[in-house]
Amino acid sequence: MGTFFSVVAGVVVGGIILIALGWIWLKRKFSKLGDALQEIAAALSGENVPPFRITVTSAEADAAWRDEQGMLGRTQELDELGYEHAGDFRIAEIEGVLLRAACHRSDACMAVVFEHPQAESLLVDIVRSHGDHLSVLATNAPDQGMHQPPTKTTVRLAADATIADLHQAAMQASRGHEAVAVTPRLFPMLYAAAYAAEMDWRIECGGVTADEVRAAAAAGGQDEPDEAAIEIVQSQWRIAIQSFVDNEAIDQFAASGQLSQVELEDKRERIKAVHDRTDRSGLIELIVEAAVTAREAEWDEEADDYDERYDAAHEAATNAVEAAFRNTEANDLRSATEAAIAAAEAPVRHLGSVEKPRHADLYLFPELT
Questions:
Q1: DSSP 210
Q2: Residue 214 and residue 220: Cα distance in Å, rounded?
Q3: What share of the chain is helix, strand, coil (3-state, %, to 5)?
Q4: Which is nearest to 282 in space by CA: 321, 310, 315, 251?
Q5: Which parts of the chain fold into alpha helices (H)?
Q6: Cβ–Cβ < 8 Å for 89, 190
């Protein structure tokens, strides 16, 4: 179906970058230290990253628009152009977003009028998807500076553009491409699928670029962020992406029947997925801690040489694990992990593998004290 909708690409992602940068600024302003530790904690938390999947739910019974008159006007424009009402909807994972969707069957266009917490006025998207995977978006949403998938064409008009102008712009940008048919009832599925496809593209890109962070700040009227702030935002995305892929892999492994639901609930916190989005340094630390914890259980905590033995074991395990990763091809994280576990004699059990949605190996780590 391709990806489209400005709430996917710009308004949500750009807005959340602004929230992240604002959070960093406040922490710096009110922190006694400056504060590198607070910034590191924020990066490790994975906060201020949009959800990678959304649930579109009906709001037909209780939709309350901030701009009721504006919505009535936009709805009338849609009616006059031959659009059919597809429903009012919310996005369960993004608070404050309210959508009104409509469908133009003959021109194969979907229209969305929506309110967003970071937008002062109603935003309008007209979208058209094609059999060759090209998607066209005509929107009055402001440019947040976000990059877009190569299969997406965006035409951006002024905030006060009429729906007729947006519809014409979408049709003109679609010339020469055969559209995919749409019906009103398809909207919730198409919207959620479009969001997932675009977020999958962002996962493949590794999150947001430094240029995107700067562009979002400029679009939001903020000062240009420094390199430290940019790195924090990007770290948040990397952490969130790793967590999302971890959970996908674990869920897929459980669904394959290789792990019962009871075992999953009991052991989930100790199961680690290793994949192409795994943070290597964090994985090294986990293996080292598993190795040291196994040895530590044999020692007397009251012994005078306890701290010395712990430090020596930690150093030995770190050297063994780092050597295993260093001696393995950089792109072969799977082999490096197996070699590191063996080298450190860490009590980590390989549970199995999954191939979809991406290749991952599942390991069961011991309980760490």
A1: H
A2: 10
A3: 50, 15, 35
A4: 321
A5: 6, 12-30, 36-45, 68-80, 163-173, 187-205, 210-219, 227-255, 261-267, 280-296, 306-326, 333-344
A6: no
Say which DSSP state 10 is in: I
Going across the sheet that includes 152-156, the strands are 56-58, 84-91, 98-104, 109-115, 123-129, 135-139, 152-156
- How far is 213 from 21, CA to CA, in rounded Å? 9
Give the whole-angstrom CA distance, residue 101 versus residue 80: 15
Residue 184 carries which DSSP code? G
CA angle centred on 349, ends 345 and 353, rounded to 5°: 130
Say which DSSP state 179 is in. Answer: B
Tokens of 294: 């196994």
Q: How many CB atoms lie within 10 A of CB 189?
A: 11
Strands 271-274 and 360-364 come out as antiparallel
- Are residues 218 and 29 in contact, defined by beta-carbon separation less than 8 angstroms? no
- What tokens appear for 7 in the block? 């709430």
The letter for the amino acid at 94 is: I
- The CA distance from 336 to 227, in Å, is 31
Q: Which residues, at least 6 apart from 176, have a Cβ–Cβ distance to it below 8 Å? A: none
How many CB atoms neighbour CB 305 within 10 A? 10
Angstrom distances, CA of residue 352 to CA of 256, 299, 358:
11, 32, 14
The backbone region for 48, taken as left when phi is positive above 0, alpha when psi lies in -120 to 50, beta otherwise, is left
List all residues 6 or more positions away from 105 whose beta carbon is below 8 Å from its beta carbon.
Answer: 84, 181, 182, 183
What are the residues whose beta carbons fall under 8 Å from the beta carbon of 15, sequence distance 6 or more? 116, 117, 118, 144, 220
Single-letter code of the amino acid located at 138 = A
Predicted model pTM: 0.83
Q: What is the mean pLDDT of each run of 10 residues along the chain (369 residues)?
A: 52 60 57 50 59 92 91 97 96 89 96 86 92 91 85 92 97 95 93 89 90 84 82 87 94 85 83 91 93 83 80 93 81 86 94 91 86
Nearest to 313 by CA among 324, 297, 328: 297
Distance CA 122, CA 113 (A): 7
Measured distance between the N- and C-terminal CA atoms of the chain, rounded to whole angstroms: 48
